[in-house]
Amino acid sequence: MDIYKAGLRPILFGLKLDPEFLHQQTIGILSWLAREGERNPAFWLRSQLQQSCCFGDARLKQTLWGLNFPNPMGLAAGFDKNGTASGSWEALGFGFAELGTVTFHPQQGNPRPRLFRLPLDRAVLNRMGFNNSGAAAMASQLCETWQYRPRSIPIGINLGKSKVTPLPEAPSDYLASFRLLKELGDYFVVNVSSPNTPGLRSLQDAPQLSGILDALQQENQGAKPILVKIAPDLEWDAIADVLQVAQTHHLAGIIATNTTISREGLKTEFVSTGNSVKEEAGGISGAPLRQRSTEVIRFIWRETKGQLPIIGVGGIFNAEDAWEKITAGASLIQVYTGLVYQGPLMVRRVLEGLVRKLEERGLSSISEAIGKEN
């Protein structure tokens, strides 16, 4: 029986506690596990998590950008903003994890409340605003974590622009964060698509994005894979422009997609503030994003003839959703909102389901399924 879905989730949702508070408590427990994982009772709890949540099968393994992914399912950026729980994500069964979004300057983010569940839609509305302790603090945190527990899965770091930095100075802001963290992440993501930092999405325009990528790649010199994360709300020609820029600057891949500003088709009408969902600012993640993010993945795969790796994210709750993303063209997938609604056993259930999909179709590796519908 899934204790989270049967008992814990109804209690947590029913108490109407602030979702951000509950999120912080979860991160606190996982941070403790990462720090004290070799001592009882943390060792016992970590072992129990691994037995319950982890699932291994050679058919799910991939090597991408010279990195070994034990399975294609990763944690999306936004869950572990400061990297404090970075040593615990493999215990939940993830094949990789993406930390951040981190900015060069520490920032508090937007005023609370800024995180809302939309239960009728299996969605989350957030306007966090890149709240984080800053790149220097993350660097210190990761150095300490890797002393306790060297990373056993690839770790990505998602970079954002500091709110205090003017848009014309964005390249130097991203570069400053990258310099502090480049030895501590296995891949890096340029986040220019969050709707919660004023003007940030304008950096997806080709000239602005080129400036950021040029600064990063000059510093990088091919040492680390760099990807860009795009919004689901871009028109097709704008996505094509991003792909052109990505190929010009030799990016390692695209993450599709960030949260959406669309409110179309939502069933949840009001949030805890008493306001209509349509009146509340922020981006929506979860099930309403599933179809659009898959369409964007399919478009990217076809435009690039499958030559530019894609990390697919948006509305993944089960193996069917994951398979849809992979066969549309995603090499890897990420979850956030699905984890909130489905709980920690979700990862194992999805991975087991993917193996069944491979068996049903006579495929010997998950890599054979990538873009198969195309």
User: What is the helix/strand order?
Assistant: HHHEEEEEEHEHEHEHEEHEHEHH
Q: Would you tell me the overall average pLDDT?
A: 94
State the separation between the terminal residues, measured CA to CA. 37 Å
Shape: globular
Helical residue percent?
25-40%
Low-confidence runs (pLDDT<50, min 5 residues)? Answer: none
Q: Which structural class do you get from the secondary structure elements?
A: alpha/beta
Strand order of the largest sheet: 3-4-7-8-9-10-12-13
Strand content: 5-15%
Q: How many DSSP H or I helices?
A: 11
Radius of gyration: 19 Å
Total DSSP E strands: 13
Largest sheet: 8 strands, parallel, barrel
How do the helices and strands line up, and which of them pair or pack?
Elements: H1 3-14, H2 19-36, H3 42-53, E1 62-64, E2 67-69, E3 73-75, E4 96-102, E5 115-118, E6 123-126, H4 135-148, E7 155-159, H5 170-181, E8 187-191, H6 206-220, E9 226-230, H7 236-248, E10 253-256, E11 283-286, H8 290-303, E12 310-313, H9 319-328, E13 332-335, H10 337-342, H11 346-360
Parallel strand pairs: 3-4, 3-13, 4-7, 7-8, 8-9, 9-10, 10-12, 12-13
Antiparallel strand pairs: 1-2, 5-6, 6-11
